[in-house]
Structures are given as C-alpha cells and as structure tokens.
Design goal:
The protein is mainly alpha-helical and 77 residues long. α2 (28-35) packs across α3 (39-46). It has one domain: Orthogonal Bundle (434 Repressor (Amino-terminal Domain)). The protein contains 4 helices and no strands. It is globular and about 35 Å long.
C-alpha cells in the first residue's frame, strides 16, 4: 500500500466515522468524553490525519453501538 492509498483509507475511514457519529446523534465532544480522549483526537481521526489504534476502534464501535466492520464500509465511487 503506497502513501496515497494509506491517506485515502484514513480519509475514507474518517468520513465514515463522522457519518456514523452524526447518525447516532453524537457530537465530537460527546464521543470524546465517552471514549476518554481529547476532542481534537476525534477531529484528527475524522479528518484522516491520524491512524488510530485497534483499541480505540473497538471503543468507538461499542460507544456508537455498531459492529466495528461498519467503520470500514466506505462509499467510494
């Protein structure tokens, strides 16, 4: 996987997280508080700036009450 593919994956993941977070009625602040992380961390994940950990992915899925696999279903053209 080259750097462009990695960036695209992180961006797609962040967009999906944002979509699911909003659909579940969470603000970035609320999700951050539930996860025990800084709001800026959620923002960076959603913007595709950082590659988050497996444990954070798991915590996100539990907090949003979704299967972790839903975070990886990207609406790409």
């Amino acid at each position: 996987m080259d750097n462009q593919d990695k960036k695209s994956t992180l961006t797609n993941f962040g967009n999906k997280l944002r979509q699911l977070r909003l659909a579940k009625g969470f603000t970035q602040e609320q999700l951050a508080n539930e996860l025990g992380v800084e709001i800026s961390q959620i923002s960076r994940i959603e913007r595709g700036i950082v590659n988050t950990s497996v444990t954070t992915l798991y915590a996100i899925s539990k907090t949003l009450k979704i299967d972790v696999s839903e975070l990886f279903v990207f609406d790409t053209p």
